[in-house]
Specification:
This protein is mainly alpha-helical and 353 residues long. It is built from 19 helices and no strands.
C-alpha cells in the first residue's frame, strides 16, 4: 500500500469521529439557544472529551459561566492566548477572577481589556470599585476621570468617579457628579447619603439636611451613618429637638463600635446641653467617657453640666480631670488654651462658695 492510500484510509477513519463531534457541538448550540444550559453542558463536555480544540473549549467555558461554575470556566479559558479570546470571553474570565477573589489576575486582565476596549464602562466601573475597596482611590480616580472626559453619562462609571472624589475629599466635584446621578434618576440611599455628607463638608447645611433626610427615609432609619450626620447637621442648624432622636437611633445601630459611639454620645450630649437639659446632657457625656475614658473635652463639658445643676463638688472634679488631661498635651491650640483658662477660673470661683 502506497503512502497516498494510507493517508486516504486515515482520513476516512477519522470522518465518523469528526462528524459525531460536530453533531455534539451543534446539539449543544441548539440547547443554548433554547436557554437549556443543563443539556448543552452534557453535549459540550462530550464534544470536548473527544476533541479539545479552542472553539469547543470556549463554548464549554461559556456554558459553565452561565451556570456560575467560575472555577471550571477560568480553568478552560486561562490557558488560551488572550489575543485568541473574544471580548465576551475576556469579560467572562475577568468576572471569574472577580468571583474567585483572585485580585491580582482580576486587575491585570481588567487593564488588558481596557487597553483593547477603551469604552467598556462596565469593566472599568467594576475595576474602579475594586481599587476603591482596596484603598487605592487614586487609581480609581484616574481611570474614571479619563472615561468621564469622553462620556459623562455612564451611570456606573459616574458612581465610581464620584466615590473616588469623595474619598479623596474633592467634595465640590463629588457633589456635582452625585447631583448629576440624581437627575439621571439614580435616587438611591448611597447617593443621597454621600451627597449629604459632601454638602455638610462644604458647610451647605440646609442642603445637607434636605439630602440626608432623604437618605434616612430611603433606609427606613436603619443606616446609622445618615442618622449621625443628620443629627450633626441639625445641631449646626440649632435644631436640637430634631438632632436628639437622630443620635439616639444612631447609638442603637452603632453599638458596640466604640469610636462611633463616642462621637454619637458627644453629639447627643451637645444637643441636650444646648436645650439646657443638663441632666440628660451629663448622662450622655458620662456615657461618652465610658466609651472613651481618655476623651479630652468630655470632662470639661461634664463639669459645665454639673455647674449648671449646682453640683459644685462634681463640677470641680470634672474640671480638674480635664486640666489633668490637657496638661499632657505637647501642643495646645488657641481654643484649648481658652478652655484651660476657663476651667481654672471656674474651679477658683466654685471653691470660693
Amino acid at each position: 500500500m502506497n503512502r497516498f492510500s494510507q493517508i486516504i484510509i486515515l482520513l476516512v477513519a477519522c470522518l465518523p469521529m469528526k462528524a459525531g463531534n460536530l453533531n455534539l457541538v451543534q446539539k449543544g448550540d441548539s440547547c443554548m439557544e433554547a436557554y437549556d444550559n443543563y443539556h448543552a453542558l452534557q453535549f459540550y463536555e462530550a464534544a470536548f472529551k473527544e476533541n479539545d480544540n479552542p472553539e469547543i473549549r470556549r463554548k464549554l467555558a461559556n456554558c459553565l459561566y452561565e451556570r456560575d461554575s467560575y472555577r471550571r470556566c477560568a480553568d478552560l479559558l486561562s490557558p488560551l492566548p488572550q489575543d485568541s479570546l473574544s471580548h465576551k470571553a475576556l469579560r467572562q474570565l475577568f468576572y471569574c477572577y472577580k468571583y474567585l477573589d483572585q485580585k491580582k489576575l482580576y486587575k491585570t486582565l481588567g487593564n488588558t481589556i481596557l487597553e483593547r476596549y477603551h469604552m467598556d464602562g462596565e469593566v472599568l466601573a467594576d475595576l474602579a470599585a475594586s481599587y476603591i475597596a482596596n484603598d487605592n482611590p487614586d487609581k480609581a480616580y484616574i481611570l474614571t476621570c479619563e472615561y468621564y472626559l469622553k462620556d459623562s453619562t455612564n451611570i456606573a462609571v459616574n458612581h465610581q468617579f464620584a466615590d473616588a472624589c469623595f474619598i479623596k475629599e474633592l467634595y465640590p466635584l463629588a457633589a456635582t457628579i452625585y447631583e448629576k446621578m440624581l437627575k439621571a434618576g439614580v435616587e438611591t440611599y448611597s447617593v443621597y447619603y454621600s451627597l449629604g455628607v459632601c454638602h455638610e463638608q462644604l458647610k451647605a447645611m440646609d442642603k445637607a439636611k434636605a439630602t440626608l433626610e432623604k437618605a434616612v427615609a430611603l433606609s427606613d432609619s436603619t443606616k446609622a451613618g445618615a442618622l449621625y450626620y443628620l443629627g450633626y447637621v441639625d445641631n449646626e442648624l440649632k435644631l436640637y429637638n430634631e438632632a436628639t432622636p437622630c443620635f439616639l437611633k444612631a447609638l442603637q445601630l452603632y453599638e458596640p463600635d466604640p469610636s462611633v459611639m463616642y462621637i454619637s454620645y458627644s453629639g447627643l450630649a451637645e444637643s441636650y446641653y444646648q436645650k439646657q437639659n443638663y441632666r440628660q446632657a451629663s448622662y450622655a457625656f458620662k456615657k461618652a467617657l465610658e466609651v472613651n475614658p481618655s476623651a479630652l473635652t468630655a470632662n470639661y463639658y461634664l463639669g459645665a453640666c454639673y455647674e449648671q445643676m449646682n453640683d459644685r463638688q462634681n463640677a470641680i472634679f470634672c474640671y480638674n480631670g480635664f486640666l489633668s488631661s490637657a496638661a499632657m498635651l505637647k501642643e495646645k491650640s488657641k481654643a484649648m488654651e481658652e478652655m484651660i483658662s476657663f476651667a481654672q477660673k471656674r474651679i477658683a470661683d466654685l471653691k470660693k462658695h
